Amino acid sequence: MAKVLATLRQHWKKSTFGACLLGWGGHWLYGKHCDNLLRRAACQEAQAFGNQLIPATMPLKKATVFLNPAACKGKAGNLFEKNAAPILHLSGLDVTVVKTDYEGQAKKLLELMENTDLIIIAGGDGTVQEVLHEPGLLRVIVGLRPRRAAFSKIPIGFIPLGKTCSLSHTLYPESTNQVQHITNATLAILKGETVPLDVLQIKGEKEQPVFAVSGLRWGSYRDAGVKVSKYWYLGPLKTKAAHFFSTFKEWPQKHQAALMYLGPTERPPEEPEEKSRPPLHVRLYRRLRSYWLSPKGFPKEVAPEEWEELKLSTVELCIATQNRQLDLTRTEDFMDICIEAESVSKGQFVHRGSQKMRDPHVCLEGSQHIQASRCILQLPEGTEGFFGIDNEEYEAMPVEVKLLPRKLRFFCDPRMREQLLQAAVQ
């Protein structure tokens, strides 16, 4: 023993390095063991759903999974196979996985949706963009394509596998453990609790409409945030460095535009879901009854819409849905328009940029806050730059933004739904 201690003392540098390496290895192995325990517990919970008896005439529920293997720097496929796929298969679902290996491959959606009971998006914000926007799911739901009545009732699940997953903050509790976060999200789909989410329809003069679940950003904070990854070598200082160096190009950084908007609209009551289609004679009776009882005469004049107009000069403009802070009992539908103050110092710009990286749609102190159901953003000729729509880049142009309230139903963790209801009561 004395000889061993003497050897360790004599080679203390190697001994210290070996001890650190051994400690790190032990910590890594313990983490892997804890992850396996989490997976096992989640699979046991999923198996309870799979063991439930169903009538022989009832078909299995069919789930279509849209998986982006390129998400999370190419790790998403492995994360899905290890953490989410076993839970889905043990639950008794008939699972079909569509891998979006290249852009636009998710256009198979409309062909598969006729034979699916639920849609699952496995990836990040970019995967949500591709599945909801490119194939036309939202165009079906808002009525730009036929068969919207059947498609609009399909619930959507989201398994966060990407680098940025904005929806996970709304649907699931926060977790620092990635495995736990993924398994919780997958189990939430099986439990069946859903929440309605608003959607923004963003349409240019000639382009097809683009849809946003989180919101639209245009300004200097967004432009600087995109460049944060270039300063990876600065570690925790990379965010501040990106905003600091962006002040060298142009200062003050002002974005000028004209904004027209309409105020909030009253929220109509939710329509009760019909379990089955009524018989033909019942439908004919309802149609005739509504025709004969409808008031005859000249149609009432519709009051003109009262548009508010505003000239703005701002560091950043943000148009966001209420999905980040859901209120299930609110009586009005509106989107939040945040106009950041233009008079900020360089120090304030760097500090506020860090806050914007943590919460992109936060409305900071001193900003102008507007609630609107619809708005038109007019940009000066020659305006360059990009919009950030759900963390995806689009060329900046004049657009009309319209709120589509409660257009999608997403699966959520029952604990999150309970918290939302309790917050609304208080």
TrEMBL record:
Its EC number is 2.7.1.107, 2.7.1.138, 2.7.1.94. It is an enzyme of class 2 (transferase). The keyword Flavoprotein does not apply. Its cofactor is Mg(2+). One of its GO terms (cellular component) is mitochondrial inner membrane. Pathway: Lipid metabolism; glycerolipid metabolism. Keywords: ATP-binding, Kinase, Lipid metabolism, Membrane, Mitochondrion, Mitochondrion inner membrane, Nucleotide-binding, Transferase. SUPFAM superfamilies: NAD kinase/diacylglycerol kinase-like. InterPro entries: AGK_C, ATP-NAD_kinase_N, Diacylglycerol_kinase_cat_dom, Lipid_Phosphate_FormReg, NAD/diacylglycerol_kinase_sf. One of its GO terms (molecular function) is acylglycerol kinase activity. It is found in: Mitochondrion inner membrane; Mitochondrion intermembrane space. It catalyses: 1-hexadecanoyl-sn-glycerol + ATP = 1-hexadecanoyl-sn-glycero-3-phosphate + ADP + H(+); 2-(5Z,8Z,11Z,14Z-eicosatetraenoyl)-glycerol + ATP = 2-(5Z,8Z,11Z,14Z-eicosatetraenoyl)-sn-glycero-3-phosphate + ADP + H(+); 1-(5Z,8Z,11Z,14Z-eicosatetraenoyl)-sn-glycerol + ATP = 1-(5Z,8Z,11Z,14Z-eicosatetraenoyl)-sn-glycero-3-phosphate + ADP + H(+); a 1,2-diacyl-sn-glycerol + ATP = a 1,2-diacyl-sn-glycero-3-phosphate + ADP + H(+). CDD domains: GATase1 (cd01653). Residues 58-206 form the DAGKc domain. One of its GO terms (biological process) is sphingosine biosynthetic process. It is a peripheral membrane protein. The keyword Endoplasmic reticulum does not apply. PANTHER family: ACYLGLYCEROL KINASE, MITOCHONDRIAL, SPHINGOSINE KINASE. Belongs to the AGK family. This is Acylglycerol kinase, mitochondrial. It comes from Pomatorhinus ruficollis (streak-breasted scimitar babbler).
